[in-house]
């Protein structure tokens, strides 16, 4: 007599039509999980200075704006 819920019983019932069942990615392969969910781990000293997501984002936006400022060339002093 076969036990109920036998873990070695891999037979599918005849009523399952596998061609009609969708194949869904699971875990880290699920595209919905990966979109806009990048996780960055800050060093402890930086985490104290930037305790929230918003503070980190604001600082990075400031760095981007600073990098867009054109650099001025210094004029050489006229030697006389």
Can you put this structure into words, describing what you see?
The protein has 80 residues and is mostly helical. It has a domain at 27-67. Helix content is 31%, strand content 0%. It has helices at residues 31-34, 44-49, 53-67. The protein is elongated and about 90 Å long. 0% of the residues are buried. The mean pLDDT is 77.
Produce a short descriptive summary.
The protein has 80 residues and is mainly alpha-helical. 31% of the residues lie in helices and 0% in strands.
The number of helices is: 3
Shape: elongated
Show unreliable segments.
none
The share of residues in extended strands comes to under 5%
Gyration radius, in Å:
29 Å
- Which structural category do the helix and sheet elements fall into? mainly alpha
Q: What distance separates the N and C termini?
A: 109 Å
Helix content: 25-40%
Helix/strand order:
HHH
Overall mean pLDDT: 77
Counting DSSP E segments of at least 2 residues, the number of strands comes to: 0
User: How can the largest sheet be summarized?
Assistant: none
């Amino acid at each position: 007599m076969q036990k109920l819920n036998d873990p070695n019983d891999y037979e599918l019932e005849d009523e399952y039509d596998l061609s009609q069942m969708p194949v869904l990615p699971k875990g880290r392969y699920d595209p919905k999980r990966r979109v806009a969910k990048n996780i960055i781990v800050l060093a402890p000293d930086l985490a104290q200075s930037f305790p929230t997501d918003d503070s980190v984002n604001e600082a990075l936006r400031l760095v981007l704006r600073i990098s867009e400022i054109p650099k001025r060339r210094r004029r050489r002093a006229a030697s006389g």
